[in-house]
Specification:
Elements: H1 15-18, E1 27-29, E2 32-34, E3 41-44, E4 50-54, E5 60-62, E6 76-78, E7 83-84, E8 100-102, E9 125-127, E10 134-135, H2 139-144, E11 150-152, E12 157-158, E13 174-176
Parallel strand pairs: 4-6, 5-7, 6-8, 8-9, 9-11, 10-12, 11-13
Antiparallel strand pairs: 1-2, 2-5, 3-4
Length: 180
């Protein structure tokens, strides 16, 4: 249909200019069931690589597709307040340029934060609140995230003590851990 013409536009950086609201009732995009897809924002750099993908509150369903790692220039990823399932994907740790990762308020299966996320050393903001996460907060995760300024882990099911590595986060401005 005409509303899908942006998919053949040749480049994802043109999506924001050609589509601000799409109604796929239901449809699939890269394995994710999309019943109402609103492109919140995509940001591209001068070489036309996507640096920001902000898709909060889009009713995205299924797990995060592994093909997202092909967006290697990504610095911002916000998939908050959708209906994403599965566990937190380890492959997100391959997006080492990320500065902001917001996956809050999704339906992830109970699981912990992958310790591989410590590779996200440029991360300044991590929002994993209301994700039904369990276990302990991995100390090695915090030890690798020296740039972290905002950490939101509230409303999960974490147990145990706060790891001592929290003291290594000298840039930390906000730490929200309530209701665990």
């Amino acid at each position: 249909t005409d509303s899908l013409r942006f998919l053949s536009s040749g480049h994802e950086c043109e999506w924001k200019e050609e589509a601000s609201y799409l109604d796929f009732s239901p449809a699939y995009y890269d394995g994710v069931n999309v019943t109402s897809f609103i492109i919140g924002a995509t940001f591209c750099d001068s070489s036309r690589q996507i640096t920001g993908l902000l898709l909060p509150q889009n009713n995205l369903q299924s797990s995060i597709p592994s093909t997202i790692v092909h967006l290697s220039a990504l610095t911002q990823l916000d998939l908050s307040s959708n209906k994403l399932t599965g566990t937190l994907p380890v492959f997100l740790s391959e997006l080492t340029g990320l500065r902001s990762l917001w996956l809050r308020d999704n339906l992830f299966d109970q699981g912990s934060i992958p310790s591989e996320y410590q590779r996200l050393s440029k991360l300044r903001s991590l929002a994993l609140d209301r994700c039904r996460l369990t276990g302990t907060i991995p100390g090695e995760l915090l030890g690798g995230m020296k740039s972290l300024a905002y950490l939101y882990l509230q409303n999960n099911r974490f147990e145990g003590s706060l790891p001592t590595e929290i003291g290594l986060l000298t840039n930390l401005e906000y730490l929200v851990l309530g209701f665990n």
